[in-house]
Amino acid sequence: MIDLRSDTVTKPSAGMREAMANAVVGDDVFGDDPSVNQLQNMAAKLLGKEAALMTPSGTMANLIAFLAQARHGDTVVLSKQAHPFQYEAANFAAFGGLMARTIDDRCGKFTATQLRQELVLIDDPHFSRTTLVSIENTTNRGGGAIYTAEEIAAIATVAQEFSLRLHCDGARIFNAAVTAQCDVRDLSAHCDTVCFCLSKGLGCPAGSILAGTHETIHRAIRLRKMLGGGMRQVGVLAAAGIYALENHRSDLAADHRRAAEFRTALESQGFEFTLPSPSNILYLRVADAFATAGSLAEHGIQVLPHALDEIRVVFHRDIDDAALEQVLSAFINIRKAG
Ligand SMILES: *Cc1c(COP(=O)(O)O)cnc(C)c1O
């Protein structure tokens, strides 16, 4: 099967498996795992932050970032499309006692002006204290839209004016840096905390990173323990992360190229895409999402029904040019049949 449901389906490459097999490990709950420490230092440096922490998942990294920077009864402002609001099982409400104030935008991205409009009445005692803003780069439900460094700087200026912390759910921040053609540090510079996933386009079997100040990461270590995310000889996973940052990061641009080729080829056949797709995530309008997914499965292609009339397709390192050709002919075939 050619699996286009998500970039989470990527399997560890041969080189990555070798790095994992040879990993030097220790007990990371004691802070003794050299591979984890190396990955955390490497990630902090890449993002230009004081410190970083490895977590089992992006969901846990986001939750820890929220819990570390907001208190029970506080409000976090985020897009209505944001992953923590849509896809994290209400964890910050359930475990953090946090309320969401959502901004209704189409691509999962809001502007500094939209943020300001949510904040004008902040001192009124009727309202919950707003203490945190969370942006997503790239946006998952927004078709992989990106925030540029300038857009983030403008949001950070508003956040600072109201003494709010700014978190970036950068699950795919390296994809964002590819599209923005900038150093990833330019995208993290204005955020207090940033997380990214090793387990998506970077191709690791598991793991995410949360980065921020020494003080925030110190709190984050305890929160990770509380949530059951303190792991022991986890250097086998950290070694995969180091390998991915050194060897797989540069391949993300090829995923974007294939996504663009896929779109151009299908648009010329009359397919309709519902959102712009500047990175590796695409949404297509179809008559019946489940029927389309079923027909494609008969051609050996897996896609994700996203709404009754919409499917999602994600390009990643396990889809090469030959697979892209196969995907294109399958889409064109089912079009002819149906
Ligand atoms: C995948 C994803 C997450 C969560 O990561 P998991 O490792 O699957 O828990 C968070 N935010 C965004 C934008 C994502 O795409």
End-to-end Cα distance: 22 Å
Helix content: 40-55%
Strand order of the largest sheet: 2-8-7-6-5-3-4
Q: What small molecules are bound in this structure?
A: pyridoxal-5'-phosphate
Coarse morphology? globular
What proportion strand?
15-25%
**Radius of gyration of CA atoms, rounded to a whole number:** 20 Å
The main sheet comes to: 7 strands, mixed
Order of helices and strands: EHHEHEHHEHEHEHHEEHHHEEHEEEH
Low-confidence regions: none
Mean pLDDT: 97
**Helix count, DSSP H or I runs of 4 or more residues:** 14
Assign the structural class, choosing from mainly alpha, mainly beta, alpha/beta, alpha+beta, or little secondary structure: alpha/beta
Number of strands: 13
Describe the 3D structure.
The chain is an alpha/beta fold and 338 residues long. The chain contains 14 helices and 13 strands. The strands form 3 sheets. Strands 2-8-7-6-5-3-4 form a 7-stranded mixed beta sheet, with helices on both faces. The chain has a 4-stranded antiparallel beta sheet with strand order 9-10-13-12, with helices on one face. A hairpin with a 2-residue loop joins β12 (304-307) and β13.
